Amino acid sequence: MDQLSAMRAFARVVEAGSFTRAADSLDMPNATMSKLVQELEAHLGVKLLQRTTRKVTVTPEGQDYYAKATRILNDLADIDASFNATRGTPRGNLRVDVGGLTARDVLIPLLPDFMSRYPDIRIELGVADRAVDLVGDNVDCVIRGGPLANSSLVARHIGDAMMVTCAAPAYLKQFGVPAYPRELENGHRLIAYVSPQNGRAMPFRFQKAGEQIDIKIAHRIGINESNAHFAAGIAGLGIIQTFASSARPAIEAGLLVEVLGGWQPPPYPFHVVYPQNRYVTHRLRVFIEWLLAVFPDKVRGTSPERRARIRSRS
C-alpha cells in the first residue's frame, strides 16, 4: 500500500463529502480512490468512513485520523514549498473562483501580468456569483465582494469598489432623471441585484456628508448574476447600482448615464478567501500577494476627473 497516497485520498473524501467528488478533484478513477481508502482502513484496523448509497459519514476514528493526517500532509507540503520558494519557481494548478462582472472587468484584464510573472502556474478560473464550497470543491481561493458571513475561512481584504447609480438614456427619457434618492420611491423602476446566497435583494444605498439613505422599495426586476444585472441596465429596464469599473466604459459610450452623482453608494469591500485548515501553497501565497498589489486600483474604478466632479457637487 502507498500509505501517503491513501492518506491524501482519505483526506479528500472527508473534505469533498463523497468518493466521486474526491476522485474528480484528484483526477483519479473512483475505483482507485475507493481501493486506497479500503487499504488504509485494513492497514489501521479501523473503520474510517461509513458508506451508504446516499452519503459518506466520517466515523469518530476517521475524524481523529483526518486531523492527524492533514497535519502530516501539510508538513510535507511545507517542505516541498520551501524548496520551490528557494528556487523562486512556484508551480502547479491554482483553482480560483470569482463573480462574473469582477472576472470580466477586473481580474481577467489583470491576469496577463500574473501569468507572465509566474509562467509555471496554471490558473483554473471558476466564474459564477453563487457561493462555492472551497473545501468540497477543492478550490484554492475565492474572490468575493460584500459583507462576509462568519465562518472558519480566512479572509484578506484586497480592495473596495466604487459604486455608481446609472440608467440607460432611453429609460431616463421616459421616466425622468432623479435629483434626490427618495425620488426613486415615486414611479421609478429599480433593477435589484439578488444575492445568490440568500435570495435577498440588495437595497439601493446612498451617502452624503454623513447622511445615509437606504431605498428598499419593491423592485421591478431582480437578477442574481452580475453580468445579467448589468445588461438589464443597458437594456433600459430600470436603474441599477453597479461597479464604477464596469460602468465607466458604458457611460463613456453613451450606453448608460450616471444619476445622483452627489449621492455616492458606500464602497463595496472585496476579499480573497481561503480555507483555514489548508496549507497555503507557494503558488497561492504569490497569487494573494499579487492581488494585494494590483487589485485595489483596478476594482476602485474611479478616475481623478470623476473624483473631482463628485467633490464639487458635494
From TrEMBL:
The keyword Nucleotidyltransferase does not apply. This is LysR family transcriptional regulator. GO terms for molecular function: DNA-binding transcription factor activity; sequence-specific DNA binding. Keywords: DNA-binding, Transcription, Transcription regulation. Residues 1-59 form the HTH lysR-type domain. The keyword Glycosyltransferase does not apply. Belongs to the LysR transcriptional regulatory family. SUPFAM superfamilies: Periplasmic binding protein-like II (SSF53850), Winged helix' DNA-binding domain (SSF46785). GO terms for biological process: DNA-templated transcription.
